[in-house]
Amino acid sequence: MLGNIFFKTALLDDSNKWYCISLDLFSELGDTDGVAKVTGNLGSLYRHKGENTVALKYFEDALALHRANKSLTDEAVIIGNIGNLYLHTSNYPLALEYYLRALTIHEELNDESGIRRVTGNIGILYRNTGDYKKALEWLHRALELRMKANDQAGLASVHGNLGNVYASMGNTDEAFPHVVRAIEYSEKVGDHKIRLGATVSKINLLIRSDKAAEARQLAASIEEELRSTGNNLLLLELAINLAELCIIEGNIDEAMTIAQSCLDEAVSQGRIREQFDATSLIYHISKLKGDFETALVFHERASQIESDLIGLETQRQFLMMESEQRLSDERKQVERERTIALEREALLHSILPASIADRLLKGEKKIADTYDNVSVLFLDMVDFTSLASRIPPVHLIYLLDAVFAAADKVMIRHKLTKIKTIGDAYLAVSGLPEPMTDNVGAAALAAVDLLTSMNELVLQMPK
User: Fold this and answer.
1) Is pLDDT of 438 > 80?
2) Most C-beta atoms within 10 A of its C-beta, which of 212, 216, 410, 434?
3) In the chain, what are the domains?
């Protein structure tokens, strides 16, 4: 719990210390479930630290442990976390594959919490690929699920991501209320990671809305706190905003210093979008300073990065389309197999005792049980052959269905097991598959009840 608390408050080194202590304790106790959960938490921690290779190793170890413990819910959580890792490293087709695998398990388990979480992550995935239509579709679906569950922590996250999507679309008016709600909800639940991220987004929106003074004040209120978290990406985004503020305020030299530092950091982190933003800023600042030679260099560089970004996004969307088609075909195949399995199960249960059908479905091939004491009940319709030659086939089938349905109800009442029907004959037994203390009496009472049911049976033949 201490590890989780420090993780939520973005103090990753403290979180790591307590996770390692708990991992040692669980290992000493031989508690494999505890070991699996903490191992998964360490994977999430190292993902946030940007150490993706280490994170993936922890996730794979946790997944193996959960599978060994047959903990399907926890397995789905780790699969979703691996999806998060691939999302973070921009491997979007693989991220989608893991997310949909996790979502399928959560849906099969009717795990609403897992469904809400993965639905929101898929929305983030599509936002990162530039497919804003699908991003909004998945995020609004996640928002509805979060609101229904009154999940305030989840609402903070979804509102923040909706704000980012609308901001990316250039729709500041739609983005602003979502970002404000993200901050409000994150403050209520004490999630500092989401609060800081949403605050940086709000600063950017304030700059776009010509509210530089308010943006500067908000930036000053979080800058020191943000530095203490070690979240390099958010620090980079804040620095880009600060450079823009310096331009607006007329501090051109300071703006250039910050922009050049941002470019170096964006290159170091491999963040192409932020490289474009920083390069564009340097181009703009160089023009303001009258340094047109530098401006031309960075204009060409910004154009090349923008071209690379467009090509990268096009390639990502193409790969996503391929991945979506493949995953859709796989899911359809799984649904077909599931339908066939359900039909097979229904068929076996319709012709065999439930306990025998279940044993066959579990893979038992040869069932040859011995019962020392059972009673057999046999029903046969008098003059059925003569009757069959006189009435239409549809009436004959209707008659058999009605008689056997009435017989089934009698057998259920007296705990007899139907063995099979052959033509107009009906065979049932008492004392198997579950032994009975008085199987003879049960069969006799069932026989009397069966005669009464047949005498009271009223048939209205179909036309």
Assistant:
1) yes
2) 410
3) 230-351 (1.25.40.10), 375-456 (3.30.70.1230)
